[in-house]
Specification:
Elements (H helix, E strand, L loop, with lengths): L12 E3 L10 E6 L5 E6 L6 H11 L23 E4 L6 E6 L4 H21 L1 H7 L2 H9 L4 H15 L6 H11 L1
Antiparallel strand pairs: 1-4, 2-3, 3-5, 4-5
Helix pairs in contact: 2-3, 2-5, 3-5, 4-6
C-alpha cells in the first residue's frame, strides 16, 4: 500500500533566508502583541504604500509570525530568517524579520503612536479634526481636502513609511506665516 502524498502547504508564510531578500525592501519596525518587534518590509515596485500601511496597522494587533501571527500556527524557522507573508486581502507579499538593535525601541515607539492614532480615529471625526493643527486644517479646507482623511493619511505615512519622522511642524509654521 502506497502512502498518500502530503498536500502542499497553504500557509501564507514562506521562509526566504536573508541571502534572498531583495535589496530594494524598505523596513519598518512594529511591536507585535506577543512582545516581539518585527521589521516589516515591502517593495514599492510590487505594492502600493497604502496597502503596506494597512498591513502594518493590522499586524500591530497580532503576534509575530514566530508566535503564530494571524494563522495561530507558529512558523518553524529560525528567528534569523526572513519570512515572506502574503496578505489574503490584497494578495501582496510582505517580508518579516526579527528586529535588532535600536530599531527595537523605535518599533515600540512607532507602535505606541500608531495605537494613539487608532484611538483618535475611534473617538470620531470631530476628535481627529480637533487634532489637526489649525493652519494646516484651514489650508486643507481652503484647498478642497478633507482634513480628517488627510490628517490620518499623513500620520500613517509619518509613522509607518517615514519611520516616525515628520515635517508637520515645519509645514504648520510655513502655513501660519502665509496668514
Amino acid at each position: 500500500m502506497s502512502r498518500k502524498p502530503k498536500p502542499p502547504s497553504r500557509s501564507p508564510l514562506r521562509p526566504l533566508g536573508t541571502h534572498q531578500t531583495p535589496a530594494s525592501v524598505a523596513y519598518t519596525p512594529i511591536q507585535q502583541t506577543c512582545g516581539c518587534v518585527v521589521n516589516w518590509g515591502w517593495e514599492s515596485t510590487s505594492c502600493d504604500s497604502r496597502t503596506f500601511m494597512v498591513w502594518c496597522r493590522a499586524m500591530s494587533g497580532a503576534p509575530c509570525p514566530w508566535h503564530g501571527a494571524e494563522s495561530g500556527q507558529p512558523v518553524d524557522v529560525p528567528t534569523t530568517a526572513v519570512i515572506n507573508m502574503r496578505d489574503p486581502t490584497s494578495g501582496r507579499g510582505f517580508y518579516a524579520r526579527i528586529t535588532t538593535g535600536g530599531d527595537i525601541e523605535l518599533g515600540r515607539r512607532l507602535t505606541a503612536v500608531l495605537h494613539e492614532l487608532a484611538e483618535l480615529v475611534e473617538a470620531g471625526p470631530e476628535a481627529v479634526r480637533a487634532a489637526v493643527p489649525a493652519p494646516l486644517r484651514r489650508w486643507l479646507e481652503d484647498n478642497g481636502y478633507d482634513p480628517v482623511e488627510a490628517w490620518v493619511d499623513q500620520r500613517m505615512t509619518d509613522i509607518i513609511l517615514s519611520r516616525g519622522q515628520t515635517n508637520i511642524d515645519a509645514i504648520v509654521v510655513g502655513l501660519a506665516n502665509l496668514d
